[in-house]
C-alpha cells in the first residue's frame, strides 16, 4: 500500500504467533495432550487406593496449590468481589467438584479408556444445551448433524445393538453425566462472569480453592480416613492434581496466547486417543472393535458441532496517520482479562474431565473455542 509524506494509511494484519516459534508451541501442545490423556489413567490408579471423593479432593487441592504458588510468584491477587466469589462457587461445583467426582466414581466400574471417550462427548452436550439456554447461539445444519453423528458414536461405543451387554451402564452414565456438567458450567459462567476483569490465573485459583473447600466438607461425611497410603495411588493423585489440574492450566493458556484458541482447542481430539493407548498399554484394558470405531465417530461429531460457516474475510482495521496504531483482530484473545475471553459454551474447553479448571469460558479448552454462529 502506498503512503504519503504528510499522511500514512496503514493496514494492520493479524499476527501469526504460531509462525514465530513452531517447535515451542508444538511441544507444549503435545505435553498438554499427554497430560490430559493420562489423567484418566491417574484417576483409575488413584481409586485403587482411595475412595473416589478422596481422589477428587486430593486432585483439586494439589491443583489449587500449584496455581496459588504461581499467583504469589506473579504477585497477583485473588478476586475481591463477593459477587465473583459467589458465582465461582457455582462454577467450581459444575466444572470441578461434581464432574471430577463423577469420573472417579465411574472408573470404579468402567475402564479408563471408556471414561476418556465419554469425556469427548462434552462438546455434543454443549451444543444441545446452548440451543436451549442461549438464544443467540443458533444451530446450523452442520452442527445439528454433528450432534446426531456424535451420539451415534456413543451408541457404537456402548454396543447398543448387543443390548449394552458387557458395559456397566451406571458407570457409563456417571462418565457421561460428568461430561454434561461442563457445558452447564460454561453456560452459567457465560451469563454471570463474562465481564469480570480479574485475570485467568486469579479466578482459576479462586475456583479451585472453592472446589477444595466444597470437597473438604463433603468427603468426610461419606468416606472414612484412609488407613494406608499405597505409593502408586498417592503418586497418581499428586500427578492428577499438579500436572492435570495445575500445570496443564498454565500450558493451556500459554498455548492460547501463542497460537490462538482455534488451534489450541484441537488438543481435545487427542485426549481419548491417548487415554485409550495408556489404558491398553499400561493397565492392560481390553478393547472390542466398536470402542475405537465409536470413539472416531464421536470425535467426528464433536468436530462438526464446533465447525463454523464460511464467512467473507472482514475488512482489516485501518489506522490513519503516523501517530495511530491499528488494533489487530482477536488481540483480545491474548489479553489477561476475563472481559476479553471467549464465550462459546460448546467448545471442549477445560479439557473436560481432564483437569483444566475451566473457570470461565476463556478462549481455550477448560472453558472453549471461539464463538460459533
Please explain how this structure is put together:
It is a single chain. The protein has a two-stranded antiparallel sheet with strand order 1-2. It has a domain of 238 residues. It contains 14 helices and 2 strands. It has 373 residues and is mainly α. It is globular. It is a multi-pass membrane protein. It is found in: Membrane. It comes from Streptomyces benahoarensis.
Q: Provide the β-strand percentage band.
A: under 5%
Range of helix content: 55-70%
Enumerate the strands of the largest sheet in spatial order, edge to edge or round the barrel.
1-2
Number of helices: 14
The number of strands is 2
Stretches where pLDDT is under 50 for at least 5 consecutive residues are 1-20, 314-350, 354-373
Rg, Cα atoms, Å: 21 Å
**Helix/strand class:** mainly alpha
- Dominant shape: globular
* Order of secondary-structure elements: EHHHHHHHHHHHHHEH
**Overall residue-averaged pLDDT value:** 79
Produce the secondary structure layout.
Blueprint: E1 9-12, H1 17-20, H2 22-46, H3 52-73, H4 82-106, H5 112-119, H6 122-133, H7 141-158, H8 169-192, H9 200-222, H10 231-259, H11 261-264, H12 271-283, H13 290-305, E2 317-320, H14 351-355
Antiparallel strand pairs: 1-2
Characteristic terms for this protein:
373 residues, mainly alpha, 14 helices, 2% strand, globular, disordered N terminus, transmembrane helix
Could you provide a short overview of the structure?
This protein has about 375 residues and is mainly α. It is built from 14 helices and two strands.
Amino acid at each position: 500500500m502506498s503512503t504519503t509524506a504528510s499522511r500514512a494509511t496503514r493496514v494492520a494484519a493479524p499476527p501469526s504467533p504460531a509462525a514465530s516459534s513452531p517447535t515451542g508451541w508444538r511441544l507444549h501442545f503435545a505435553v498438554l495432550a499427554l497430560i490430559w490423556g493420562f489423567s484418566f489413567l491417574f484417576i483409575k490408579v488413584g481409586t485403587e487406593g482411595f475412595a473416589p471423593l478422596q481422589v477428587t479432593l486430593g486432585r483439586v487441592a494439589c491443583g489449587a496449590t500449584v496455581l496459588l504458588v504461581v499467583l504469589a510468584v506473579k504477585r497477583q491477587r485473588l478476586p475481591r468481589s463477593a459477587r465473583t466469589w459467589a458465582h465461582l462457587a457455582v462454577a467450581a461445583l459444575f466444572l470441578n467438584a461434581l464432574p471430577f467426582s463423577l469420573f472417579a466414581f465411574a472408573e470404579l466400574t468402567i475402564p479408563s479408556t471408556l471414561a476418556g471417550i465419554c469425556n469427548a462427548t462434552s462438546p455434543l452436550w454443549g451444543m444441545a444445551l446452548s440451543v436451549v439456554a442461549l438464544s443467540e447461539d443458533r444451530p446450523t445444519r452442520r452442527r445439528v448433524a454433528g450432534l446426531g453423528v456424535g451420539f451415534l458414536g456413543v451408541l457404537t461405543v456402548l454396543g447398543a445393538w448387543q443390548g449394552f451387554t458387557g458395559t456397566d451402564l451406571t458407570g457409563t452414565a456417571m462418565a457421561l453425566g460428568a461430561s454434561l456438567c461442563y457445558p452447564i458450567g460454561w453456560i452459567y459462567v457465560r451469563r454471570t462472569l463474562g465481564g469480570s476483569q480479574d485475570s485467568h490465573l486469579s479466578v482459576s485459583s479462586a475456583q479451585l480453592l472453592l472446589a477444595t473447600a466444597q470437597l473438604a466438607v463433603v468427603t468426610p461425611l461419606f468416606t472414612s480416613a484412609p488407613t494406608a497410603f499405597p505409593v502408586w495411588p498417592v503418586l497418581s493423585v499428586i500427578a492428577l492434581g499438579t500436572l492435570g489440574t495445575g500445570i496443564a492450566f498454565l500450558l493451556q493458556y500459554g498455548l492460547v496466547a501463542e497460537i490462538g484458541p482455534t488451534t489450541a482447542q484441537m488438543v481435545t481430539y487427542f485426549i481419548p486417543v491417548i487415554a485409550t493407548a495408556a489404558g491398553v498399554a499400561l493397565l492392560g484394558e481390553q478393547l472390542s472393535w466398536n470402542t475405537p470405531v465409536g470413539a472416531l465417530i464421536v470425535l467426528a461429531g464433536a468436530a462438526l458441532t464446533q465447525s463454523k460457516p464460511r464467512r467473507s474475510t472482514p475488512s482489516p482495521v485501518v489506522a490513519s496517520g503516523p501517530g495511530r496504531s491499528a488494533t489487530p483482530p482477536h488481540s483480545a484473545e491474548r489479553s489477561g482479562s476475563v472481559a476479553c475471553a471467549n464465550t462459546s459454551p460448546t467448545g471442549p474447553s477445560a479439557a473436560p474431565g481432564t483437569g483444566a479448571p475451566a473457570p470461565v469460558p476463556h478462549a481455550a479448552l477448560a472453558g472453549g473455542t471461539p464463538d460459533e454462529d
